[in-house]
Design goal:
Low-confidence stretches: none
Strand content: 5-15%
Helix content: 40-55%
Number of helices: 7
Distance between the termini: 36 Å
Radius of gyration: 22 Å
Mean pLDDT: 86
Number of strands: 6
Order of helices and strands: HEHHEEEEHHEHH
Length: 158
């Protein structure tokens, strides 16, 4: 496997960045933002939009990119309907939702995740990171054997 195929170990801070992104994107009132806006919210740097776009694209197991736009969101939040009122910070019940006009409905967002949901995603990221490290170590099993064989050959030649 090529180095670029190991997103969790391509950057020593990747796991921390994925965890930070999950926490912010899971709990922020607006479920979808531009890469620059997420960069500002996650690390305080709106100029890091290219970096965060790369993180989001390399981890489709957690993040969703809007095709043709520079926006991302947390995939899990797309499981929820757009029935969260960001001003009131509460879910709109179905009976109230049905009474809303089209303009007010368009202002609704997807629900933030619960702390339990966030913990589940963080644990998944940690597990994927650990699996990737194990896989990389398993893929190098032949290296000690080659050096041992080279030592025997060199010893025999000398």
């Amino acid at each position: 496997m090529k180095k670029s195929e190991y997103p969790y170990t391509a950057n020593q801070n990747r796991l921390a960045d994925v965890i930070a992104a999950i926490q912010v994107m899971a709990s922020f009132k607006n479920h979808i933002q531009t890469f620059g806006d997420w960069g500002t919210r996650i690390c305080g740097d709106e100029n890091a939009s290219e970096y965060w776009e790369n993180v989001f694209r390399q981890h489709p197991e957690f993040f969703r990119i809007n095709i043709g736009k520079s926006e991302a969101s947390l995939t899990w939040r797309h499981a929820y309907q757009k029935r969260y009122d960001v001003d009131l910070e509460e879910k709109v019940v179905l009976s109230d939702y049905q009474k809303l006009d089209a303009k007010k409905r368009s202002l609704l967002k997807r629900n933030p995740l619960t702390p339990s949901d966030i913990a589940t995603l963080i644990q998944a990221a940690i597990s994927l990171h650990s699996s990737e490290i194990d896989h990389k170590q398993d893929s190098r099993w032949w290296i000690p054997g080659v050096f041992a064989l080279a030592g025997v050959v060199i010893g025999a030649v000398i």
